[in-house]
Amino acid sequence: MGLNMAKNSHISMKKIxxxxxxxxxxxxxxxxxxxxxxxxxxxxKLV
Length: 47
Prior knowledge:
The chain is an all-alpha fold.
């Protein structure tokens, strides 16, 4: 079960990075805000 959760979180991180990369090409400031909020959301899930 733990391994499956790790796989799922890896996939979501990949999606977040892809989305952040797309946003970075539009506006680096928007991407920074998105990455920080996504990081906080992930940290809440892990705790």
